[in-house]
Amino acid sequence: MTARESQAPPRDLPCKELVEVITDYFEGRLSQEDRRRFDHHLLGCGGCRNYVEQMRETIRLVGAISEDDIPVDAREHLLAAFGDWKRGR
Q1: How far apart are CA 82 and CA 78, in angstroms?
Q2: pTM for the complete prediction?
Q3: What is the residue range of 8's domain?
Q4: Based on the structure, what is the number of domains in the chain?
Q5: Would you write out the chain's pLDDT as a tens digit for each of its 89 residues?
Q6: How far are the Cα atoms of 9, 21, 79, 82 from residue 85, in angstroms, in the given order?
Q7: Using CA atoms, how far apart are residues 49 and 61, in angstroms rounded to an integer?
């Protein structure tokens, strides 16, 4: 790869795709190219920058609780809600 090729702008990353890969972003599992696309998108999208910051703050605030800290009925309700969301209901 030439120096010019390494300087090519990353392919566009739609907002929807950014939302879908945010966990991989935070956990450092994005490829180098996808990380560049993610960071490049944030430069030009204030809505996604806000979303990433909200997720960081949520992780900071909630990251200290364990699964055992969540009452069983609340845990079951959350799992059902996320299951329905994933299935598109």
Answers
A1: 6
A2: 0.61
A3: 3-86
A4: 1
A5: 444 444 545 568 889 998 899 989 998 999 999 999 999 999 999 999 999 999 999 888 887 777 788 889 998 988 888 877 656 65
A6: 34, 16, 10, 5
A7: 18
